[in-house]
Specification:
By secondary structure, this protein is α+β, with helices and mostly antiparallel strands. Helices cover 16% and strands 34% of the residues. It starts with 20 loop residues before the first helix and ends in an 8-residue tail after the last helix.
């Protein structure tokens, strides 16, 4: 069985400017914490759909923050336990910034915009009922994921993911993530003039988060090291862009990928 927690991690998958506690300890160089005072910090309120904060003068500030859907208790405690146990029976591969991963998706070169089926055999069987459950939410009706990426975050490894926008050439409008084992925070960020605005979105364990619209395309998303306090496992599901759907330039390939993905007979690649 694959290890589910690290006591003394000895290697990592970091490349280039990426780093984690494992390689930082080996190199004797600790990554500096982000303390840029030119940033404005807000907190997302799911009930109102607003990003809110109290400024230095004690004045309440807020603005609409569209494109976020939080579905709490999407999976039960029993389902969470079973899902993580099944993941831990598979191999976790080392990835960037102290994460480990399991991929269920096609082989993609985003820089050259190339997609190959490769050894892709579909999403895992256990995901079928959760994809069906997603369709109960109006926003997710018609959501057909063609990729599932499981990620393992650990405070011992200093796991994190840097601010980024997901690809739009292959991946479609809705990014769906199921969070397991521990609460965390998704930090959304956008440049506004000379300052960076950050919106912290609380992400409880066993919940589902959808990013779409402005939150998908305008705001970068990240998980910072300090927001991983216990082991966290998540599954992110991505759908195809319009270029791979009926009428699109890559319609035939998209149809092939969907047929494979939604057979739910996959193993990690």
């Amino acid at each position: 069985m694959a290890a589910s927690e690290d006591s003394e991690p000895a290697s990592c998958g970091c490349k280039g400017i990426r780093s984690c506690l494992v390689c930082e300890n080996l190199n004797g160089e600790r990554r500096a914490e982000d303390t840029d005072h030119s940033e404005l910090f807000f907190k997302y309120e799911p009930s109102s759909g607003l990003a809110v904060r109290w400024n230095e003068g004690g004045v309440h500030e807020s603005f609409p923050f569209p494109g976020v859907l939080l579905w709490e208790d999407f999976v039960s405690e029993e389902e969470e336990r079973d899902l993580v146990n099944m993941m831990d029976q598979d191999l976790w591969k080392e990835s960037q910034s102290g994460r480990k991963k399991q991929d269920f998706g096609p082989k993609v070169n985003f820089k050259k915009q190339r997609v190959r089926v490769g050894t892709f055999s579909g999403l895992p069987a256990v995901s079928r009922k959760f994809v069906l459950r997603m369709s109960q939410e109006k926003l997710l009706q018609g959501f057909q994921p063609v990729e599932q990426c499981n990620l393992d975050y650990s405070p011992q490894r200093g796991s994190a993911i840097d601010p980024h926008l997901d690809d739009c050439w292959l991946w479609g409008e809705r990014l769906v993530t199921v969070n397991l084992l521990s609460d965390t925070v998704i930090t959304m960020s956008s440049e506004e003039g000379q300052r960076e605005v950050r919106v912290c979105v609380g992400f409880p364990r066993r919940s589902l988060l959808v990013l779409h619209g402005e939150a998908r395309h305008k705001w970068k998303h990240a998980i910072h090291r300090q927001d991983i306090r216990q082991r966290r496992v998540c599954s992110t599901f991505r759908e195809l862009s319009s270029a791979f759907l009926p009428g699109g330039e890559y319609e035939a390939l998209g149809s092939q990928l969907l047929d494979i993905a939604l057979g739910f007979q996959g193993s990690s690649v």
